Amino acid sequence: MEKLDHVARTRFPPLRWIGRQLASVRKRTTIAATVVVGMVLMAAFIGVVITLRAALTRNVVNTAKNEADDIVLLVRDGHLPNPLPIPRGDLAAQVVTSNGTVVAYSPNLKGAKALRSPKYVPSQGIVQTEDSVRANRLAINGNVDLHTVFVADRVQVPTFLVGVLSRSKSSNPSHLITGSTGKPTTFDVYTIASLSSVDASVSALNREFLIIYPIILAVVAISTWILSRRALAPVDQIRRDVEEITALNLSNRVFQPDGEDEIARLAVTMNSMLARLDASAEQQKQFIADASHELKSPLSALRASLEVGLLHSESTDWHQTANIALRESERMQRLIEDLLTLAKAEARVQAVQVTVDLDELCREEIHRIRRTHPGINIDMSRVSAVRLLGDPEQIRSIIRNLIENAVRYAKTTTAVSASTDGHLATFTVADDGPGIPVERRDAVFERFTRLDPARSRLQGGSGLGLPIVRSLVELLEGTVTIGTSELGGACFRVQLPVLTRDRVPSDAANGPIPMKEKV
Question: Which conformational region is residue 179 in: left (phi greater than 0), alpha (psi within -120 to 50 degrees), or beta?
């Protein structure tokens, strides 16, 4: 569809012009509202016209039927005046014998032949509308009426009512006189009713509609244009506010109108988005500043030790200087590795997926940390066998950062446990340190956040361990929470999906399985 639309706009310049003209929401709304109202009014008018014509036609038909019934009664009574009394000028009537002789007629049919041949007379009471020119046309007020209702009745007069036609001095038949005997006589009664009054009423309604219709459409178009301008005014203000917002003033907010309509909710949503962007920008600035500061510290120490050694090269202990340079370089390397790990975790990059024994990784990391922190008791008696499916280095990073964080703040003891309930693997690290206040438990997962900056920096903490843990746990579709341990300090609880038959590929046991990046 988009390709066809592009071709149409390319080959047909008028379509491009129309597209440009309808680019405004106000224009499209006004046109749409006007078209919809116009269609509804037109449909309603057509319905009214049809209903009115049907009602008026039904009244005319009933009038013609009633007049025919009255003439039939006159024939049966044996007293048929001539001319026939017709109450309205748009009615006409004839009484014709079976041989086609006109015996009575209304004044407006004087001198007219029989309207219909007797063999073509419909059954009694049948009504039909004439739409074509006939030889015997009904002339009313000098106009030829081609749209009429025709009612035909056939009456057989009994023998004792049949008489002869009497003639007055004017040789015009005045009535039937009963008396003589003979065969029954058949009379056909024709009644014609003009539909000109119906047409006149409908035409008057059409003329009024043609006058009122464009006025209503104009009122609708103007009202919609004005109302849409007022309704979209906040949108224009929001657009202008957004145009003025740059990376240098993300703290600005767009205009938020009163109420709870869609535009107000849009403004709220945009302000929330701007708040998140502002917070993200501030976080990035803080991250850059913190990373620069963290990298600056070991570089400054390394440079200072080297400069002092060069200034006093004869009295400098170069072995000690080398050890200082090695420690600071290791500190920089660890910080850079943490930054890379955090960046990959936040980018949702999962390199490999293999079967991982969580308990084995716990034991390896605990043995390593025991060598570097000999004064801390690490209890691993509650570590059970747990198998996971994931990247072993990512899981190892989770374990190492949590245990190192606990050891850094523990007084004497750190407890590690690992267990599974068949669906989730639970890994906890607890300590007997000062713990983490409830109001700070979310903040510790932010980058470069330290509850005790001086103490953690002296002990080697960079403030990236717990953010790395949270990002990696979320990457592995798990959760991490903080509570209070039985030892009195903090307790970190990590829950990860365990290795199940549904989560193991058919060739998982044969080695690492490349995974696509999760975006």
Answer: left
